[in-house]
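Quick one, probably user error.
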């Protein structure tokens, strides 16, 4: 996700965030309360998304939603949402959904998001650039890339997987994030794009909100403090099976689903260590 993603106007004043009701069944909320925060405590202020579980009777024209407050199932018309390709994911019975209702008719849902399908690990591929490459004249850039031997290109311009994992209780984790422990990164001949350190995710009126910040670890790494917190948002353009497309401020990025975030982070760390050894050998 790009750092240029626009910030939500409602979160411009961080102190104005008030935690209100959110998602999950009453039984789930009661269980969570015994060990920490409930879903209801973690929803962003101003979020009008309607949360609940998909019930029997859902179709291409109707969503039957069991609301979180334990009330009776509610039927919503989604004909226009289906025509406008605003059904994100395939709703199945028992799935956790988020609905954005029509402002003029509360029985109509303009947007449907399958939040259970949205959860998981999403990745994309990034490639590094030569250090100070962007500061070179275009002709020199072109000549450098043309003259670079394929063996060198494969060795130093190694792609990485970036992305994030969206987990239960609105928690998130970066995929491909490598914490630099020393100055070896400055010795590397290549530079990778920056990756945010994600900690939370939310839905705010149909938009995906990611919380990130700067991690500061204790000497033994037993404790972590997040500073310089940012709230970023983007539109969900497409969600189906193993594909996700997000957009913000005219920029669009596609993601593929990754089964194991731990393996992706392990590979990223191993690649960073390998490149650090090469920097030492210079």
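Nope, works fine. Designed sequence:
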């Amino acid at each position: 996700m790009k750092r240029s993603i626009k910030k939500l106007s409602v979160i411009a004043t961080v102190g104005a965030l008030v935690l209100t009701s959110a998602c999950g069944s009453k039984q789930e909320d009661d269980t969570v309360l015994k060990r920490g925060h409930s879903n209801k405590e973690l929803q962003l202020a101003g979020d009008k998304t309607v949360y609940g579980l998909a019930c029997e009777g859902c179709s291409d024209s109707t969503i039957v939603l069991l609301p979180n407050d334990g009330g009776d199932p509610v039927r919503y018309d989604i004909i226009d949402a289906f025509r406008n390709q605003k059904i994100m994911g395939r709703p199945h019975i028992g799935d956790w959904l988020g609905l954005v209702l029509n402002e003029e008719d509360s029985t109509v849902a303009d947007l449907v998001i399958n939040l259970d399908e949205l959860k998981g690990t999403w990745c994309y591929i990034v490639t590094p650039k030569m250090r100070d490459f962007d500061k070179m004249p275009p002709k020199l850039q072109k000549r450098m890339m043309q003259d670079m031997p394929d063996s060198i290109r494969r060795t130093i311009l190694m792609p990485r997987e970036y992305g994030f994992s969206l987990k239960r209780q609105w928690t998130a984790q970066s995929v491909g994030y490598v914490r630099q422990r020393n100055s070896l990164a400055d010795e590397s001949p290549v530079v990778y794009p920056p990756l945010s350190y994600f900690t939370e995710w939310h839905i705010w009126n149909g938009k995906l909100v990611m919380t990130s910040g700067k991690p500061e670890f204790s000497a033994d790494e037993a404790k972590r403090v997040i500073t310089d917190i940012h709230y970023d948002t983007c539109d969900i353009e497409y969600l189906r099976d193993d594909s996700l497309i997000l957009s913000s401020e005219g920029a669009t990025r596609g993601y593929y689903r990754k089964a194991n975030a731990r393996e992706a982070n392990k590979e990223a760390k191993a690649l960073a260590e390998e490149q650090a050894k090469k920097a030492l050998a210079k």
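The first strand starts at residue 50 and ends at 54.
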